[in-house]
Amino acid sequence: MPVSDRKESELADRLAEVGRRVGLAMSDALDRIRPAINAVAEVAGRPEVRSVVERAEKLLRHRPCLCFCARAHPDDAGICEPFDAVITRPHSSDLFGEVDVPLCAPCAAARAARDFTG
Ligand SMILES: [Zn+2]
Ligand SMILES: [Zn+2]
C-alpha cells in the first residue's frame, strides 16, 4: 500500500474513533442527566411544587397596572403595584382613542391627586 493511502485510511480510522468517542460521550452525558430529568418530572408532580406553580399562575392572571407612571405622576413613580390593578380609568390616547386602562390603587390615587391639583 502506498504511503499516502495508508495515511488516508489512518485518518479515516481516527475519524471513526473520534466519532465513536463523541457518540459515547453524548450517550454518557445523557445517561448522567437522565436522573436529573426524572427528578424534575417527579418534583413537578409533587403538591408543594404544584402549589408554587399555581401561585405563579394566579400572579400571572392578575391584571397588570398599565399606568405610565413616569408620565402620569412623575413625583410618585415608585408607588406603583405593577401586578395589582384594581380599577380601570378611561384614557384617551392618540393611537387607540378612548380606552380603559387598568390601574393599581396607588396609581389611581396619584393620578386623581394630580388631576385635582392640575
Ligand atoms: Zn402609575
Ligand atoms: Zn400602578
Walkthrough of the structure:
The protein has two domains: 3-58; 63-117, no CATH class. Helices cover 63% and strands 14% of the residues. It has helices at residues 3-44, 47-61, 69-72, 105-117; strands spanning 85-93, 97-104. A hairpin with a 3-residue loop joins strand 1 and strand 2 (97-104). The longest helix is centred in the first third of the chain and has 42 residues, at 3-44. The chain is elongated, with a radius of gyration of 31 Å. The chain starts with a helix and ends with a helix. Bound molecules: zinc ion (2 copies).
N-C termini distance: 96 Å
Q: What is the average per-residue confidence, as pLDDT, rounded to a whole number? A: 82
What is the rounded Rg? Answer: 31 Å
Poorly predicted residue ranges: none
Give the strand order, joined by hyphens, for the main sheet: 1-2
The coarse silhouette is elongated
Summarize the structure.
This protein has helices at residues 3-44, 47-61, 69-72, 105-117; strands spanning 85-93, 97-104. It is an alpha+beta fold.
